[in-house]
Design goal:
9 strands; 13 helices; two-stranded antiparallel ribbon; alpha/beta; seven-stranded mixed sheet; Rossmann fold; 397 residues; binds S-adenosylmethionine
Length: 397
């Protein structure tokens, strides 16, 4: 919606509300006057006519006028509220119906990829509102050390830590596999001077990333494309670094991604992964794994692997020299920040989820967004229960 359309629509809405208030005030005034005629009224007074006769004259008191105005304002508010509610409700029902039809007729809509797209299309607003700012455009967790004092800095710090881990230099060509809104790709071009291509499944994120690259003045070094990182269209040996920051966890074809990354890297090239990993020892019981389900489903994550499973699969795809770093303690404050939705008390997210559940019931909120909030709560609890870790992996071709 353009700015002009928004202004026009707001003006029309305000004018309609004023018109309804005026009309209902007139109607209420007429009704009160009529009622007064039938009841003895304190506001009747006797006046002497020019011919000397006495005549009773009626007038409306200020109180009457106030009463009729309050009535009409109440009516307008109820009427407008009802209209807005009905419009929103029917829009949501229509969306649900469309999704049902899509599921029924399009077998792709149940694939992991389409779940990822549906999740990010629905939850994009929440990421923009509660997580990132135009200064970082980050959809990942923040890295905290003694130099980091704020949420925003922690998000940028994660880029810095990963870029050092990958030893990225200005000569490198980097593939950002699962680039979100392009935050890391833009940061790398600006701060490491390298060339970056970002790929992503979500069309809205790709077009926003292109816009952000333009406004950041790095469009000559960064480009974005809508593509699946498990099957890209780039020629063999196109990149020096493949960067997967909290993206691989979405995929149910991790082996296919490792093979693709191997094909795309030049000799000596590095694959960098930053992701959630299952606790290694003791391994999770099946009950403990089940407790992670709301998190995985809510954020459209395929599954979590233990670090040793990653290492095994990477070596099977031809990679050597696996290096790992556990940075769970450095991201813990960021996970807690999400749990609190940047308010100071712990149960905030639970309260928001409870309100969201009621709003969903009456059609005012979206199921996918609600499950996204519940996923965050589940993830936070699972971290406190020690069920998962956050691991950086670096391998070389
Ligand atoms: C949690 S976000 C992280 C985004 C970005 N790396 C960042 O740190 O800001 C995960 C991203 O991976 C993308 N993604 C998931 N599966 C993908 C796939 N198979 N191919 C390409 N992108 C994918 C999602 O669309 C989303 O943009």
């Amino acid at each position: 919606m353009t700015m002009t359309t928004a202004i026009m629509m707001t003006t029309i809405a305000i004018m309609t509300a004023i018109a309804i208030t005026i009309i209902t005030t007139i109607i209420a005034t007429i009704a009160i006057t009529a009622a007064k005629r039938s009841i003895p009224n304190k506001n009747q007074r006797q006046v002497t006519c020019s011919d000397g006769r006495l005549k009773v004259k009626e007038s409306l008191s200020r109180k009457d006028i106030h009463q009729s105005m309050s009535l009409s304002i109440c009516f307008t508010i109820i009427y407008r509220g009802h209209n807005i509610f009905c419009a929103r409700f029917s829009q949501l029902r229509l969306e649900r119906f469309k999704q049902k039809v899509k599921k029924r007729w399009d077998p792709m809509s149940t694939s992991q990829e389409s779940k990822v797209v549906a999740y990010y299309e629905a939850a994009g607003t929440d990421y923009r509102r509660y997580w990132f700012s135009p200064a970082n455009l980050a959809m990942h967790f923040g890295y905290y050390d003694s130099t980091v004092k704020s949420h925003g800095t922690s998000l940028l710090k994660m880029n810095e830590v990963l870029a050092s881990f990958a030893a990225i230099s200005p000569d490198d060509q980097v593939l950002d596999a699962g680039c979100g809104y392009g935050g890391s790709a833009i940061w790398l071009a600006k701060n490491r001077g390298c060339q970056v291509v970002g790929i992503n499944l979500v069309p809205e994120q790709v077009s926003a990333a292109r816009r952000f690259a333009k406004t950041s003045g790095v469009e000559d070094r960064v480009s974005f494309a809508e593509m699946n990182f498990t099957a890209t269209t780039f020629p063999d040996e196109s990149f020096d670094v493949v960067w997967a920051l909290e993206s691989l966890v979405h995929s149910d074809k991790k082996e296919a991604f490792f093979r693709e990354a191997y094909r795309l890297l030049r000799g000596g090239g590095r694959l960098i992964i930053a992701d959630y990993t299952l606790r290694e020892s003791p391994a999770l019981s099946s009950d403990q794994k089940t407790t992670l389900t709301p998190w995985l489903k809510g954020w459209a994550l395929a599954d979590l692997l233990a670090t040793s499973e990653y290492i095994q699969a990477l070596q099977a795809s031809g990679f050597q020299k696996v290096e790992t770093r556990d940075i769970t303690e450095q991201i813990r404050p960021s996970v807690n920040w999400l749990g609190k939705l940047h308010l100071p008390t712990w149960p905030t997210a639970d309260i928001v989820a409870a309100i969201g559940r009621v709003a969903c019931r009456i059609g005012l909120y979206n199921d996918i967004r609600l499950h996204g909030i519940e996923a965050g709560i589940c993830q936070n609890r699972a971290l406190r229960a020690g069920l998962w870790r956050y691991t950086l992996l670096r391998v070389q071709k």
